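Q: Joint fold for the lines below.
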Amino acid sequence: MSADGQSASGPLLAVGQLTKLFGTFAACNGIDLDIKPGEIHALLGENGAGKSTLVKMLFGVLTPTSGEIVWQGQPVRIASPSAARKLGIGMVFQHFSLFEALTVAENIALSMAPGISLNRIAEEASALSHSYGLPLDPKAHVADLSVGERQRIEIVRALLQNPKLIILDEPTSVLTPQEADRLFETLNKLKAEGRSVLYISHRLEEVQRICDRATVLRHGRVTGACDPRKETPSSLARMMVGSDVAHVSAEGTSTKGAVKLEARHLSASARTPFAVSLKNICLKVHAGEVLAIAGVAGNGQGELFDALSGEYPAGSDDVVRIAEKPVGTRGINARRLMGAGFVPEERHGHAAVSALSLSDNLVLARNQSDRRAFLGGGVLGLIRQDAVKRATKRISQAMDVRKSGENPPAGSLSGGNLQKFIVGRELDRQPTVLVVNQPTWGVDAGAASRIRQALVDLAKSGSAVLVISQDLDEIFEVATEIAVISEGRLSDIYPAAELSREKIGLLMGGMYGKTESAETAHAH
Amino acid sequence: MRIELEKRPNVSKLFSILSPVIALVLTMIFGGVMFLLLGKNPVTALYSFFIEPLMEVWSLHELAIKAAPLILIGAGLSVCYRSNNWNIGAEGQFIMGAIAGSILPVVFHEWHSPLVLPLMLLLGMLGGALFAGLPAFLKAHLNTNEILTSLMLVYVAQLFLDWLVRGPWRNPGGLNFPETRTFDPVAILPEMIASGRTNWGFGFAILAAIVIWFMMRYTLKGFEITVLGQSERAGRFAGFSSRKMIWFSMLLSGALAGLAGISEVSGAIQQLRPVISPGYGFTAIIVAFLGRLNPLGIVLAGLVLALTYLGGEAAQLSLGVSDKVTRVFQGLLLFFVLSCDTLIHYKIKLVWSNLTGTATEGAH
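A: Joint structure:
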């Protein structure tokens, strides 16, 4: 620990010309970055900008192709995560690595050196978690904990190693606003103790709120280093995206038409031990409106989508209605034939098959709804490739899908472009009902704004749009009505203008008395 | 040190086409080494194994007879494997097809009618399909692993056949040999070409391969098979049912295996015996993969594997080596096909990990 005696102004960690090649693709290209002791340093960038690759190199998960890492003045080679931990680098990943069937203490013990008793770990973890304002019960099973609590385990696990630098990868993407506030308090405590934090995010507002300095990445290069408090959100966005992002306009979507999509006391039991059951969900989406369902990930959003789309039909017909007709037990294609369109959350392996071409992925969603256009040969069901390819081209043009070649495999497109295609695939049919789960998850800002505008425009043209999203910014951009899902229950529906972020945050935590109001249940 | 497989950023088109050829060449080289170790001249041994059978018309007919069941079964299996249903029990379905088809010529041997043969073929397909329906039911409704159930049912079928030909179906005039009566001429699959023994089983095989190729290439059903094989969830999104696909693919491959069984019995053997297949149902798995699960490729692969059977027989006669050589060649071929395919998608990386760092970490 001789390096501790260094002057406070010398960087804790300095990275010089760090490069990582995957084949010929440079995920990180000559990155320079330095982190001072006791600062919260933001690493900003869109998905695919190289943020995760960079921190994986810092944490010893990936080996750099070239460049150097200097830790407290000494050049180091970080060969593995355990080597990183020994240096004093802790990391909290975006996707948790916890065993749901084990307790909190057992999960923490797994990452510690062997030979320490479980009781001691439990005591230390409990003491540490309380002193940082992240209370944890070490005996609780992980499966019973909320996502925010699970994240605390990861943070406490990192803190137990007494790190000098903590890396947090998109920590607030799974938190309610209130949970995020508590996290920020903890981060400030860590900072006051002289520890450094490398904070990865694409949320500009929170970066401006808590970070001292920011490094912005785009396409694997550093495009800006700044004090985020001296920048505006739009100047930061410009550094991230490289151009100005179009503003989504939700004007003109307030006129309410007939009810196009309805759920009446929809319940569904959990299909797997760790899934969420839906409890008595009532909702209505009118023509011309965008109903957004907010909520923290893992509160039943996927299950709600499955029930509304008919991928897993409900037990009785009456619980789901499309255009006033009961369809609860009908499959997804029957619902598509009634004018509904669906966009699931997961692009690869659900909305699209990565290895298949775009035109095949068009057939995937529309093999029955566009039977007449896409199929020929009667019972043989011959796929009319020419018609399908024409439609693929039309959709790609309409949504500005950037791709290599005429009809490449879906897996070769970037997340944003594939998502534009998947959304465009439904819009191209002019659906009267569109149900979208996490429309811009992991999508770059340019594509996100295009997709959101398309959803708003669809509602304007008289369709009913249901958007399930974790992203509050997105919800406020597109929604005319907002409801919140928490532990498989849906709150009342509120006009978007009447809800504040704080109110939504409370609803996300499940703090509402659900009333059987005439508005949601007994209107018919 | 440890060995890692690292995914290649892009797959070479050239090598994915060449892969089966490379596998064949490697099989030859290692087969040659094997003959050398056995004390034979590898060049003449390989010549008599792989070339001689192709030099005479009668032996080309034998090749077609042996290739027919391999292609028929392999084409059916390609549908299974593409849809992610791992039917390993084609050997059993082959046997049950042969038994079901033989009901007419064995039990109702007095019935002479032009209808006998078509009905036999239909019964053969039905028998194979129903027997494949068992693992299909178990998988679709009880979520069992079809690899295990279909494989274990092979032994059931083999023992059932053994019991039949030694017991109730034994030829009353057959001097107590474990065989059924020989089939009546109306129950025999006719020859296809005037020059030799090749029967219509080969015609069925080519037809089945073409039909399945057409289905996979042009129809929505083929698309459904591909999608469900790649991702069940995406298939569900498309409105396809993976449960129905289990039934479809298993019944189809079972029916084709059953057709192969009854064609073999009715065309080539002309009676039931305790053993009617030299492992066609298992070899067809190699055929399916060597043909890259493409029915047209499977036709070629079926001919290649049929050659290993013929070569094995020839090697017994001319070289005096055991017919187990056939199995060795088939094993080598499967090994090299699978490894070539793997190496096209992945490259081998030796990781010389820095043991000192982790050793001190692990010591406590």
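Q: Anything notable?
A: Residues 1-8, 513-524 of chain A have pLDDT under 50 and may be disordered. Chain A touches chain B through 41 residues (CB under 8 Å).
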